[in-house]
Design goal:
7 helices; binds 2-oxoglutaric acid; 266 residues; Nitrilase/N-carbamoyl-D-aminoacid amidohydrolase; single chain
């Protein structure tokens, strides 16, 4: 399987519309890949909070239209990263879209863990509540977004639902880059799965982005890692390696579920 992660730069000197056109052309240039991945909130920037409401779109808005067309023109499975979605009740979500090579929507995932504690995305957006997996020829994707990477129980639930390739679009800041690469490897090792983690480059709302998109195999080896600037990271991998790893080193079979919790101290 050939996957291309488009680590697009998100800077304020480019409009969302111009970036959408550029992203579509970058996707079309990946014709021949099986799977193409874009990062989180690449139209607005993950830290441009005031843009979320101003730039929010219905599910089938301009980003959906442009990415559906780009997927079908390139003939690839496309995880189109995420955009600020406004639903019919006016609530905002950080929503990712996955398209089939014919440009049909295969899945939409609303980010479950919102980042910011008591500000930013955590207060501006609503949380998703549904796990999403997508069956591709040869592998099943499990999708998560950025801050979700810090929550191993979400990834374990995706594995329980059949995921073998975990796809994580992000807008991860440079100042915590060490966590990004460490957590991507941890999620791969503990779940014996491929991790495809696609970040952004550039600086928006004063927040330099980490870049360093990374692809990790089920043994935790880094197959490819981008630098800090805009880059397309392309990697070939054999999805059957997940089954071989789980067979050879069957740690997932040794899980102990339903442990009693210690009684709270009086
Ligand atoms: O967890 C982190 O350090 C970064 C998370 C983040 O930037 C996000 O989810 O938008």
């Amino acid at each position: 399987m050939r996957a291309s992660l488009i680590q697009i730069a998100v800077n304020e000197d480019e409009t969302a519309e111009a970036r959408r056109l550029r992203a579509a052309s970058l996707v079309r240039a990946q014709a021949g890949a099986d799977l193409v991945v874009l990062p989180e909130l690449w139209t607005t920037g993950a830290f441009a909070f005031e843009e979320f409401a101003a730039r929010a779109e219905p599910l089938e808005g301009p980003t959906y239209e442009a990415m559906a067309k780009a997927a079908s023109e390139a003939g690839v499975w496309l995880h189109a990263g995420s955009f600020p979605e406004r639903d019919e009740r006016g609530a905002l979500y950080n929503t990712s879209l996955v398209f089939s090579p014919s440009g049909d929507l295969a899945a939409a995932y609303r980010k479950i863990h919102r980042f910011g504690f008591d500000k930013g995305e955590a207060v501006l957006m609503s949380a998703g509540d549904t796990l999403v997996t997508v069956a591709l020829p040869g592998t099943t994707l499990g999708v998560a977004t950025c801050y979700d990477l810090r929550f191993p129980e979400l990834f374990r639930a995706l594995v329980d639902a059949g995921a073998e390739t975990l796809v994580v679009p992000a807008g991860w800041p440079e100042r915590r880059r060490a966590h990004w690469t460490l957590l991507a490897r941890a999620r791969a090792v503990e779940n014996q799965a491929f991790v495809l983690a696609c970040g952004t480059a550039g600086t928006h709302a004063g927040m330099p982005q980490a870049g360093h998109s990374i692809v990790v195999d089920p043994w935790g080896e880094v197959l490819a890692e981008a630098g800090s600037g805009e880059e397309v990271l392309t990697v070939e991998f054999d999805p059957a390696e997940v089954g071989r790893t789980r067979e050879r080193f069957p740690a997932l079979k040794d899980r102990v579920l339903g442990l009693d919790r210690p009684a709270p101290r009086a």
